[in-house]
Amino acid sequence: LKELTYVLAEPYSSADFQHGPVALVENGFLVLAIVPEGETAAELTGFLQELKPRAPRLVVVSPFQPALDLAATAISIPSGIPEWLSPLVAILPGQLFALGLALAKGIDPDQPRGLHKVTLTR
After folding, report:
1. CA distance 112 to 115
2. Which CATH superfamily hosts domain 2-17+25-104?
3. pTM for the full model?
């Protein structure tokens, strides 16, 4: 997201988010939450419920309906995917979001500024 759109965005686990970054959440603050099925779904949904009084703009990527119900923008992904594989499916909407935002800002996503090859070929 940062590289393609030049937007300052930070990834956090829900546990890390509650220790500092949560102070940034206010009316209209964008929170993109990826809520996979499995043992973390209820916990993450509870965390999103705790954020609601602060009036953030919640974008939720999930197959878990209770989490999607909290979202201003709900992106449903297929259900029944093993939890260990779910990041592969959940990342796709994020990649498409970054692509769309880059294009909307007039940025060539294939030529981000400052891109350098970091490995040496010998």
Report:
1. 6
2. Glucose-6-phosphate isomerase like protein; domain 1 (3.40.50.10490)
3. 0.84
